[in-house]
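Exercise: predict the fold of this chain.
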Amino acid sequence: MKLETTRMLAEKDGAIGWIIFNQPEKRNAVSVDMWAAIPAIVDAYAADPDVRVIIMKGAGDKAFIAGADISEFGEKRNSPEATKVYDAVAGKAHAALVKVKKPVIAMINGFCIGGGVAVSLSADIRIAADNARFAVPAARLGLGYGVGGTKRLLDIVGPAYAKEIFFTARQFDAPEAERMGLINRMVPTAELESYTRDYAARIAANAPLTIQAAKMTIDELAQDPDRRDIAACDAAVEACFASDDFREGRTAFMEKRLPAFKGR
């Protein structure tokens, strides 16, 4: 895949499509060109039937993402107009991750700070090493935090923990993050990649249309009632029952073998 920046990498490995934040010298702080590359990577994986699961990770062993690249703020966020442009680019990246129909896993090692937390919240599942550290330091920088990102945090950890994270701006270790529900799983650092790969393989072996329908329905139910597209959810469920995969699943069960799902 040809990208406009080398600070984002896209690597296919079997059923996994990797999204790699590749600025390890800055602990993978996200620059504008990195935000801009994300929708292209996600769209390519969305269109590739061989990719069943998307995994995000940071390059190196120090950080998942240590926030936005603050060195750019003097130029990229130095006025309301410039901030609006910057936020639009970042917003498209988050929207691409949230809206893609395939499962997205954030594999979190080391620092996951500010924009890193926001990116992780765009994933469906967060698996973290026991050395991971989390913080949203907006209150220490005087930054405003958008409604979309705030709602995602609120939906995942609840209002009490969301307020604690924002008000204190302190770092939380992996055990605290797990207790809050900020991450799904905490594993030993040395086992992070193997565990995440195994988890992705388990997901990839399941029926893609069923996973797609479940993701859609859960996300729609998380919306305000007047914004839910229940008809689309019902159509996705009906598509499962009408699929070749449903027939394959039944046949495999009767024949006492593993199913071979094709996503159709």
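Check your answer against the key: The two ends are 25 Å apart (CA to CA).
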